[in-house]
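Replying to the earlier thread about multi-chain prediction with a worked example.

Input:
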Amino acid sequence: MNMKKILILVTSALFVLSACSSGGAKIGTLLDETGDLGAYGPPIQNGVDLAVGLINDAGGDVTVIHADSGTSPNIATEAAGKLIEIDKVNGIVGSLSSGVTMAVAEAKTIPAGTVIISPASTSPAISVLDDNDTVFRTTVSDAAQGVVLARLAIEKGYTNCSTLYVNNPYGKGLSDIFSTTFESLGGSCGAQVPHEQEQPSYKSEIDKAIGNEPDVIVAMSYPKSAAVYLRELIEGGYSGDFMFVDGTKNQDMFDELGVAQFEGMHGTAPGAADSDAKSTFSSLYEAKYGELPSNPFIGEGFDGAILLSLAMAKAAADGHGNTIDGNSLRFVANAPGEKVGPGDMKKALDLLSDGKDIDYVGVAGDQEIDANGDVSNTIEIWSIDGGKITSSGRFESP
Amino acid sequence: MKKLDILLDNKILSLIIIVICLASFLKPWLLINGILIGSLYSLGSIGLSLIYGNLKFANMAHGDFMTLSSYIALTLMMFLFPNSENSTSVGPFTFKYELLMVMPLAVIIIGFMAVILDKLIFKKLRKLNATSAAIALCSLGLAVSIRGLIQFIWGTDSARFPRESKLFWDLPFRIKIPPDMFFCSVVAVIIAIIFYLVLFKTTLGKAIRATSDNPDLARITGINTDRIILYIWFIGGILAATAGILISVQQALITPVMGWKILIPLFAAVIVGGIGNPIGALIGGILIGITGELATGWINPSYKPAVYFFVLLIVLLLRPNGILGNKGRQF
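Result:
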């Protein structure tokens, strides 16, 4: 009996202690450990841990609480509720899928006024979300890719194009922005043809796309569907060129179709030029985890956590506790101010406590946050050169 | 073919047929696409129709039998003929001679697998007098398990049979025919006719139909109904495997979800054509293919399924048992 009482006392004491363990700032993550994108989440969590480790080594006091968003709006919304209401985090890094991020924002973070930064959601729909300036991202919107792709098409001398796009927000958004820009630059876009994923044949869709004899067809799909229609186009006698996007940037697909047929053709994908920030981040990541950050969006996750931590330091310096908003984020992320990179956290925190302005230059880009909460990071232009997908070394902003 | 005359008498159906003819006249290349793609659906739906009609449940695992057969054929090919990537292809088609050798092997493996699955699962369900809905749900579980097994063994990446790229046949009126698709269509027609003859002109067919109509009565007349059911599964497995391999040759791609993805048009084809009739499955598949592809000429191609389900709705409203369905049968 006595034993039982002690046990209850000890557990409740532990519970109370854990609830008020730290007076410092808290960052929650809402990344995918399970579900379709389950493979992408854990390395991004590592990126966030690395960022917070750097801040704490420099004299900060930030705790990270990881939660699984399960590539599912339901799981993620519940997890976000726990982060906000029980853990009382001051900001969240997440989620990956655009649909999940939007669901979490609308159900939880916008009503609670909590800042959320997505490292990977690229849908243009997030820009126009009615969010009271609380939803941000460190990755570039697909709107930027469409614009850069259209400019590239004009530069390569194409005048008449068609698009074949996967019938979802990703494909439709890209195709719309690409064709509008292409036409405003003087080209003409004959057909924009949506298609369902993974069908046995796309003959009729192709007939529609080649109806106006385009000199280039842009493949805005995922590899398993594009493999079918690209082959049918080539074997059906189409002799024009192709252009590609991040969804069709897949070496295996080109190899199976016969990569020689695509030699010299171009594509785009979100990407940042090699920079001091990027190489500092890579070596720090390798030192901590024993491997290079080769998965996508790790740098974006790292930048998100750094921006949240710096914004909290700014809020603390201003006497607002750890409560951050769009203004404190833009203060640390945007020019003017002294430029700081991933390796300068001590300097950044010192400058902030002295009341000076800083401008964080991130791993995934300059991270200048605009009025919609978007960043204008760069789009990489790549081509197929010698049978391999090769970066042209050109990184453009829209 | 009296039943077709009855269909032509109906005003609504005549109207649909007139619309289809007009659309085909305006864009003949879409009609050809429809026939070719429809015949791929026919190919898969003949086996599905056989099982649906005679064992009286919707076999959700049919699509995954198709996928599994492709992976087994691919593995056999890699194992028995590691150099097939460099060998010559058959006539005007893209596939290699080696495929024709491993295909019967893979097809028979799937046939026996279907028989074994019946002994392990479906026979027990029949003994428990499970409803057809319960058996169909069980086949759904089987479908998910087979797909999981495929992803576990072969991974989630796509694969393909060794092939030699060939240009499509270029005909007037913007009509282009992929040689492989033409091959699939011919095979679909041959299989439909053979199984129509087996089912309606042989004693085995008579026994199959008797077993499906009334198992008890069939048993009394001396038919070994257990054996007949095994024959049905074996033939169903063989048909699924043939369709699976030919479709993956045609699309030059094998993915773990290919069979599952094609299952909805297959069911539509079976129901439109009349459950249990091989010629019905052939006609149903081609009708669905034609209406879906013709519609892409005027509306967004991603609405194809909506178009052929609309056709399905109309056909069922006018003929609740499908175009060639037997009036006496209830499902």
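Residues 20 and 274 of chain A are 42 Å apart (CA to CA).

Feel free to reuse this layout for your own posts.
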